[in-house]
Design goal:
Helix content is 57%, strand content 10%. The protein is of the alpha/beta class.
Length: 307
């Protein structure tokens, strides 16, 4: 029997079809495998890149952390340096400087303010800051707690915080020589708390009413010996603005009294007051500084004397 060429071999067709399906299946499997490999590689690259980015970010964070730690370390070192610099140390040279304070050749002016802090302390400090002048404040311990911020500001701005006792009540202060030392210590403790420096000691006292005043003279003399034994020296003044002489103050009066008491002195310790009733003193202070500058005085505080 002759086979017709046009006849379709069903079995061959089926076999070919089966072969094509297998190939397609294999291609699909291979394609899926390739895609999986590609995605896996892509994810690996993403992970590697992410890890690299993380490491860079971590390095930046560590650098910032190091910078901040260095900044804080330097700030702490600077605070310690300033703290050490502003802790007065009474040496033999310092005692001699106090004894010879009025004998230096160059013209020096020590501006001193008693009885603060008060309502006018801020105004006084503003003037001193604007004029770039460092002064000395003989503070009262009984006034410190109500105005700790002002005492801290005095300290932070480089002024010398000296000691005027605690109470300013003469009968209490001069009840005995020991009482004078007790007043000093009580005031000193208040100052330490206000400025946050437990080691601070001014070593400098001004007797309320002045040491040279005849009132309580014997007690003062005995107290001076006790103070010296405890590394505390005292200082009065040799010039003033007259704000302790009257409450009816004016700038003209203060400037006149200043001129009268300065005279021809080369070295002056100027007595002024930091008290509510002495507002004129704060208002006149720029003129006082200007006059002293015109006369050739250089301003110092007791850091240059005690240390």
């Amino acid at each position: 029997m002759v086979r017709d060429n046009n006849e379709v071999n069903i079995y061959e067709f089926k076999n070919e079809k089966k072969i094509d399906i297998k190939r397609i299946f294999i291609v699909i499997i291979i394609s899926i495998f390739i895609i999986c490999i590609s995605l896996t590689l892509k994810n690996i690259f993403i992970i590697i890149r992410g890890h690299k980015t993380y490491k860079q970010y971590e390095a930046q964070l560590n650098a910032l952390k190091y910078q901040e730690e260095e900044k804080q370390r330097k700030l702490k070192e600077e605070e310690e340096r300033i703290k050490k610099e502003r802790n007065p140390i009474l040496t033999d040279a310092g005692r001699k400087n106090i004894e010879n304070i009025y004998k230096a050749d160059k013209k020096r002016a020590f501006l001193t303010f008693d009885d603060g802090p008060s309502q006018i302390t801020s105004s006084i400090l503003d003037v001193l800051k604007n004029e770039n002048v460092k002064a000395t404040f003989f503070v009262l311990g009984c006034n410190v707690d109500d105005r700790k911020d002002m005492v801290k500001r005095m300290y932070d701005e480089g002024h010398y915080i000296a000691n005027h006792g605690y109470s300013h009540v003469y009968t209490q202060i001069y009840s005995s020589p020991q009482s004078v030392l007790d007043e000093f210590n009580a005031c000193n403790e208040k100052v330490r708390n206000a400025i946050g420096n437990p080691e601070y000691n001014s070593h400098l006292f001004r007797f309320p009413g002045g040491f040279l005043s005849s009132r309580y003279a014997e007690i003062k003399q005995q107290a001076k010996e006790i103070l010296n034994q405890n590394d505390i020296v005292n200082i009065d003044w040799n010039a003033l603005n007259g704000d302790a002489e009257t409450n009816d103050l004016s700038s003209e009066f203060e400037l006149q009294r200043l001129s009268e008491t300065i005279g021809e002195k080369n070295n002056i310790v100027v007595l002024m007051h930091d008290a509510a009733l002495k507002k004129v003193t704060a208002e006149t202070l720029p003129q006082i500084i200007a006059i002293l500058r015109e006369k050739g005085y250089e301003f110092e505080n007791f850091y240059s004397i005690i240390k």
